[in-house]
C-alpha cells in the first residue's frame, strides 16, 4: 500500500473521530439543557403548590375567625380571640396582624405582633373591603393584591391582605382582614429554590411588576421591562408567559427558564426560575475534557501505528 494512501486513511479516521466528538458533544448539551429545564419546572411546580395551599389554609382560618360570635359581639372577647389568632402564627414570622372594621371600613379592633392597636384608620378603599361589602358571602375569603400596609406590625411593608366579611343578623357589619408579609413569605417558599448556585427566582404579579427576587432585592416594584431592559428577548418571553394558564419553559441565548402561574382567587402571580445557559457549558465541560483526552490518545495511537507501518512499507 502506498504511504500516501495509508496517511490519507489515518487522517480520515482522525477527522471522523473529531466529527463524532462534536456531534456527541452537542447531544450532551441538549440532554443537559432538557434536564435543567425539567428540574426547574419540577421545583417551580412544587413551590407554587405549596404557596397556594398556604393561602387556602390561611384564608379558611380568617373566614373561621370572622364567623366567631366574639367578632359579632365586638367586646373584650373580640380582642382576646384576635390576639390568639396572631399569637398562634407569630413564630412563622409571616403574619403582621389582624383587624376588624366597621361597616364603613374604619378599623375598630386591631391585634398585631407589636402589640399596638392603631384604631380609626379607614380601609374602605381597599379591594378586599369593596369586595366584602358588595359581593361576598358569609364564610368566603378574598386574597387582596399586594399593597403597602398602613398600620400595625407590618406598617410600610408590602403585604397580602386576606379578608372575610362579618355579618350581624344577616347584615354586613365589616371585615376581618389579616396581613401576610410578602418578603418573608416569598423568602420562605422561594428563597432556597436552587438547581445550582446560579439559579435565580423571580415572582411577578399579573402586570409584570416584581414582587420578589433572590438575586435583585432592590428591584422590587420594577416592571420586567425595566428590570430586564438589557435582555429584551428574556423580558418578552416573560411578558408572554404572564397570560399563560399553564406552566411552561423557554430558552434564550443567555437563559434557561421555567415558569408556573400562581392562581390566588381573582389574581394571578407568575413564578420564574432561571439558570444561565453558561451552566450547560460548565456541566458539559468534564465530558468534553474526557472525550478530548480520549480523542487525542486515539489520534496519537493511530498516528504512531501509521508511522511504524509507513517505515515498514
Automatic annotation (TrEMBL):
Q: Outline the extent of the Cache domain.
A: 32-273
Chain ranges passing through the membrane: 6-24, 256-275, 287-309
Keyword Hydrolase assigned: no
Q: Which GO terms describe its cellular component?
A: plasma membrane
Compartments, record wording: Cell membrane
List, alphabetically, the Pfam families matched: dCache_1 (PF02743)
Which Gene3D superfamilies does this entry report, sorted A to Z? PAS domain
- Membrane topology recorded in Swiss-Prot or TrEMBL: Multi-pass membrane protein
Would you indicate the residue range of the signal peptide? none
**In its UniProt entry, what is this protein called?**
Cache domain-containing protein
Query: What organism is this sequence from?
Result: Candidatus Daviesbacteria bacterium RIFCSPHIGHO2_12_FULL_37_11
